[in-house]
Amino acid sequence: MKLSMETYGQGEAIVLIHGMGSAATAWKPILSELTKQFEVVTVDLPGHGRTPYSPIQQMDPTSLANLVTRNLKEIGKERFHLVGNSLGGWISLEIAAITPEAVRTVTALAPAGLWLTPFTSRYPGELALRAMASGVEKLAPSLLNYTWAKRIGFETVSPRWKDLGYEICLDATNAMASSTGYFPAWDALLGKRFDKQIDQQIPITIVFGDSDHTLPAKTCQERSLAPSHAKWVVLPDTGHAPMWDSPTEVLAEITQTALLKR
Fold it and tell me: How far is it, in rounded angstroms, from Cα 245 to Cα 240?
């Protein structure tokens, strides 16, 4: 299937892959700075953002990795850096493992899949979360002007939820509300974890926030599952979307990792 992709800037290609229930709009806080150094390619996964969901598309991380790689090849991107958040971080690691010849570097922000015990069911409350986002989508432009509404939507995602910009919150709410691929992606990762080897010649940086309640350190940040040569960074006062809470630090990690390219 064809993915919706947008390209910005000039330079070596760097591909940004969002998380589950999100969209390419999640990268806005760091997009303009990245375009000063790279040709940035943003991707909308199936059933997210501008890419429609297809029931015949497999939604597990390995299948999505192959899908992203095929789409990149179709637009002439044979070699690239990867940056992914959450599910997008897992997909980035899969791409590096499956097609190492295409990957210059990987920066994985709060990547999913690094858990010793794979999930056997969705998080409790996931249905309610998506229903809530869908239910308030039309009201969100008004509701997000109120602190109480912003708190309900983002307190568990970001320790700096009070500081998140209106546009970030509105984009995130709309992305979740319209993500027809959300539950298929959830169900496709059940029973799985990242378990592949990655060429040690590929520089890898893994970034987590110290306040990530979506993928907690005790259960979902198992360093033994990460590539042994990966740089592991924990950012202070940062949640599950490090590019929102700590954009300057995230940009620095991406740039430093990219300089280590093969």
Answer: 9
Reported as a pLDDT band with limits 50, 70 and 90, residue 262 is low
Distance between CA 252 and CA 129 in Å, rounded?
A: 33
167 vs 29: CA distance, rounded Å: 10
What structural domains does the chain harbor? Answer: 4-258 (3.40.50.1820)
pLDDT value at residue 125: 52
Q: What would the mean pLDDT of 25-36 be, rounded to a whole number?
A: 98
Q: What is the pTM of this model?
A: 0.94
Q: Which of these, 64, 115, 108, lies nearest to 202 by C-alpha position?
A: 108
As given in the structure block, the two tokens for residue 69 are: 């790689």
Residue type, 211: S
Per residue, the 3-state secondary structure of the chain, as one string, reads CCCEEEEECCCEEEEEECCCCCCHHHHHHHHHHHCCCEEEEEEECCCECCECCCCCCCCCHHHHHHHHHHHHHHCCCCCEEEEEECHHHHHHHHHHHHCHHHEEEEEEECCCCCCCCCCCCCCCCHHHHHHHHHHHCCCHHHHCCCHHHHHHHHCCCCCCHHHCCHHHHHHHHHHHHCCCCHHHHHHHHCCCCCCCCCCCCCCEEEEEECCCCCCCHHHHCCHHHCCCCCEEEEECCCCCCHHHHCHHHHHHHHHHHHCCCC
CB atoms within 10 A of CB 148: 8
d(CA 42, CA 23): 9
